[in-house]
Amino acid sequence: MQEDLFGDAIPQPPASKPAALSRRKITKVSLAASALELSELAAQLPETLRFGVSTWSYPGWQGLVWDGEYEPSTLSKHGLEAYHQHPLMRTVCIDRTFWRPLTVTQYGAYAAQVDKDFRFVVKCPSLITDAQVRDEQGKVRKSNPDFLNPRLAVEQFVQPAVEGLGASLGVLVFQLSPLSWAWLHRPADLFHKLGHMLAAAREALPQGSSVVLAVEVRDPELLSQNLVDTLKANGATFCLGLHGKMPPIEEQLPILRALWPGPLVCRWNLNREFGAYGYADAQKKHTPFNAIVSEDLPTRTVLARTIGGITGAGQAAYVTISNDAEGCAPLSIQRLAQLITAQKK
């Protein structure tokens, strides 16, 4: 039964301005008219399924999401209000929180731009989920004394997100950056710390909250019973991380089966053809992100079956996709939606 279930055939608000500047017209972003043509497709998808992208400030989505040509800075400030009106986009992943914690006010500014049905997926700051302190180029400087610190996780991440986003908060993702061999050879210590942090995060959520806690890993060695036991014990789930550093989707599904029943959280980050550290190559090949350039039909097919099985059992599914997956996140979502509806027939 579980095999069938998982589809196997086996911005901060602007400060007040002087009167002379306040009269200046601020450019607003509108949804592309062609996006509304996808309303019928969206209506055929499971109610518990939420598709979204990883960030939204891409001018190349003109005609797909945006009604015209806009600067990235304009889209960053005003694009979310248009984006959330797209029939297929019911969530978005805020990746910027990985690099620096956001304030309650900043989260609140995001929440003010969407309707009550929209939900946010938010990444925990790396100052908590990276075992190393790195420089701006990503090189390791020293060990991180605050790695998986429960107090910091609550103060710098959970509480601001809960207070700022309110009912619009859907998922809190704790992405563990690639670990050193020293940590990988001490799994008991690692999962002990992870469990304590997840317990603190769970306790900090409002009583009866439907917010999902999800853990994403970047080391295949962590796909283990220890991970399953830690997640189960703390009411968390596994984030299906589709990335060049991780095994294909089929090899990650056993973790979800072991956690069943539960929601699906999936982040399709990087096409495996670019390898473990191929973001720069993917960006170079995919720019301006307006077409499917690196199609990955095998991953898309298995993911569609997985989504269908999980949502068919009444569970929630949050699926966010990056341009680095196939070249254009909105088109990847559209094709994935079409595949899901076709499999239902």
Automatic annotation (TrEMBL):
Coiled-coil residues: none
Q: Which SUPFAM superfamilies match?
A: TM1631-like (SSF117396)
Q: Per its UniProt entry, which superkingdom is the organism in?
A: Bacteria
Pfam families cross-referenced by the UniProt entry: DUF72 (PF01904)
Transmembrane regions listed in the UniProt entry: none
Record-given protein name: DUF72 domain-containing protein
Protein species of origin:
Alcaligenes ammonioxydans
What lineage is this protein's organism placed in?
Bacteria, Pseudomonadati, Pseudomonadota, Betaproteobacteria, Burkholderiales
